[in-house]
């Protein structure tokens, strides 16, 4: 953590803000920060929209390492930013302690449930979006062999894998799906090991796999590198990775599973500015456009009708997507 990580004006010293008046937001990025191409970037887009549309001020801090989470949240709390939004489940214990110590402030956390009355827990039906890109992979695979690379082998990323496998098998029950994780639950290095992801992806591509979906934070860059070298497909996650890739990389990004962290961050900021300082769980699913898939590049334009048909069945409840 460093003072240079603060990217906007100093926070107000006042904890309370009149309803509808401009507020000062604290945004705590996890490791990777802006430029990670996935969920940190998405959160940043949400705060950027809030600055533009709502006139709020935003103070940003990035966790350069695991040791930065506690001091970053402590600093944002001491400055009386309100709300304070933590990007990632690894902030769970930190947010719980900070919220208990600062009941006058509102907190929010992405991808985790913190049971405190002043914490908004922002969850996503990642399995639903993953089902759709799994279906896309099966529809586009020529070899009948696809793959999934996860970060930590915990419940959160198991959602992505379960949805992806279900979507692929809904198209082709006989499709072969390889899955591998970069670390055990709690191994935070799994999110920033692109070399490991690249090694796995290279071996799978060489063996005939033609599409790999990675839900592994910054590690997913290694899958894209391997796809470029093998001239095969990669599927991005969280953000539309086509939009933040080089022209060479854009040629291999079939689609991306969109987890609309940007929408969740924006809605949270707006709610607090409008006077809603309550806690509770909010789930962003296909019904509210909280998850989805990207069409940038035009590579899946021909199968969009089939994907939309699956989407409608998920929303109606006809298809129930597994989470594990």
UniProtKB/TrEMBL annotation:
Record's signal peptide: none
Domain called ABC transporter substrate-binding protein PnrA-like: residue spans: 26-323
Membrane topology (UniProt): Lipid-anchor
Low complexity bias: start-end ranges: 1-17
Keyword Cell membrane (UniProt): yes
Subcellular location: Cell membrane
Predominant location: membrane
Organism superkingdom: Bacteria
Transcription as UniProt keyword: no
Region of interest (Disordered), ranges: 1-51
GO cellular component terms, semicolon-separated: plasma membrane
Pfam family, any one: Bmp
Keywords: Cell membrane, Lipoprotein, Membrane, Signal
Similarity section: Belongs to the BMP lipoprotein family.
Name under which the protein is recorded: BMP family ABC transporter substrate-binding protein
Protein source organism: Nakamurella antarctica
């Amino acid at each position: 953590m460093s003072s240079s990580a603060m990217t906007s004006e100093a926070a107000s010293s006042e904890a309370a803000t009149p309803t509808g008046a401009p507020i000062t937001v604290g945004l705590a990025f996890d490791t990777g920060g802006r430029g990670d191409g996935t969920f940190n970037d998405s959160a940043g887009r949400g705060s950027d929209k809030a600055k533009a549309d709502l006139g709020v001020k935003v103070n940003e801090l990035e966790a350069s390492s695991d040791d930065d989470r506690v001091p970053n949240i402590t600093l944002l709390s001491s400055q009386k930013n309100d709300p304070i939004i933590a990007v990632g489940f690894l902030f769970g214990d930190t947010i719980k302690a900070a919220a208990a110590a600062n009941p006058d402030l509102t907190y929010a956390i992405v991808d985790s449930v913190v049971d405190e009355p002043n914490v908004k827990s922002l969850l996503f039906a990642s399995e639903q979006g993953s089902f759709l890109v799994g279906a896309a992979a099966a529809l586009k695979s020529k070899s009948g062999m696809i793959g999934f690379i996860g970060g930590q082998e915990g419940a959160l990323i198991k959602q992505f894998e379960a949805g992806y496998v279900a979507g692929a098998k809904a198209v082709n029950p006989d499709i072969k799906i390889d899955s591998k994780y970069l670390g055990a639950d709690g191994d935070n290095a799994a999110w920033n090991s692109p070399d490991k992801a690249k090694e796995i992806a290279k071996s799978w591509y060489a063996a005939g796999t033609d599409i790999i979906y990675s839900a592994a934070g910054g590690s997913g860059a290694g899958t894209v590198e391997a796809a470029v070298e093998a001239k095969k497909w990669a599927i991005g996650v969280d953000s539309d990775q086509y939009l933040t890739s080089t022209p060479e990389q854009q040629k291999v990004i079939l689609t991306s599973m969109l987890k609309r962290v940007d929408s969740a961050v924006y809605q949270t900021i707006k709610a607090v500015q409008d006077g809603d300082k309550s806690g509770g769980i909010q789930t962003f699913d296909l019904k509210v456009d909280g998850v989805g898939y990207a069409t940038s590049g035009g590579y899946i334009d021909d199968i969009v009708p089939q994907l939309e048909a699956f989407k409608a069945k998920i929303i109606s409840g006809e298809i129930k997507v597994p989470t594990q």
